[in-house]
Amino acid sequence: MDRDQQYLTTLLEKVPKWELTDPQHQEDFDRIKSSLSNTSDFQGRLKSLYRVANFSDFALGLMWILERVARDASKLESTLDEESFVLGLLKKAFGETAATTEVPEQPFGFDFPQPSSTETPLESAASESPTEQSATSEGVVTGATVPSEESFSATLEKLLEAVQSGSEERTILIDELTSQAEEIVAAQDSDNDYKTFCGYLVEFLKYVSANQLFDDIRVMNLISNVFDPFAQWAKTGASERSGFLEQPIEMLRDFKALFE
């Protein structure tokens, strides 16, 4: 862990998470901290966080602090002002407070596309694809728009590839897919089989995350087995889909038997 990552990790640990009013937000924040402290691609993880809807300002605020750290070798510990600043951006990201905390204008030492002068970071994030808007890089459910079937299928495929390759992105994609599936389950106009599939998928993905089973071959096999029929379902017309999701639903419903 380099100096920048260590500084930011220590700073985030000092942020008083108990000031977040929703316990779920506190848990989500813990997952963000864990993701940033354990990744080997620190800058890439910050870029991913930037693309999460509502979290662009939070990510930019962390980058701004890191710029100050990079310019001042004497900065060894975070200040109360920095911790308060990050907490304000975090509350703003979770929608717990009005948007009163602003990120100072600052060039960043990242190879990273900045929003234009006429577009706020939040507007920039909103212009990204549905997959990027719904990302829960660290477990945050943020997307306001139900993802399309094609987008959801693409995210599931990315997760399968990440699990097969052992990529660190698999934790981000699990959170992203969980968020998208929850949005589909909550949508009033979703297909019943689709909702059932997503409901069981959420339960499975949360089990994988809670038990840190990212490298378990059984997880890879199950995702692989449900992806193919789901991808076929997504490509098939609504009038011809009957029965496509029966087997994937059954496998997801009974997934715990694999781990007993």
If you had to describe this structure to a student in words, what would you say it looks like?
With 260 residues, this protein is mainly α. It has 2 domains: 3-127, no CATH class; 146-259, no CATH class. The chain is 61% helix and 0% strand. It contains 12 helices and no strands. The protein is elongated, with a radius of gyration of 19 Å.
Mean pLDDT: 77
Could you give a short account of the major beta sheet? none
Rough outline: elongated
Uncertain ranges: 106-144
Q: Which structural category fits the helices and strands? A: mainly alpha
Number of DSSP strand runs: 0
Question: Helix tally?
Answer: 12
Number of domains: 2
How is this fold's topology laid out?
Elements: H1 3-14, H2 23-38, H3 42-50, H4 56-71, H5 80-94, H6 121-126, H7 130-133, H8 149-165, H9 169-186, H10 192-210, H11 217-235, H12 246-253
Helix pairs in contact: 3-4, 4-5, 8-9, 8-11, 9-10, 10-12, 11-12
Annotation keywords:
260 residues; mainly alpha; 12 helices; 61% helix
Summarize the structure.
The protein has about 260 residues and is an all-alpha fold.
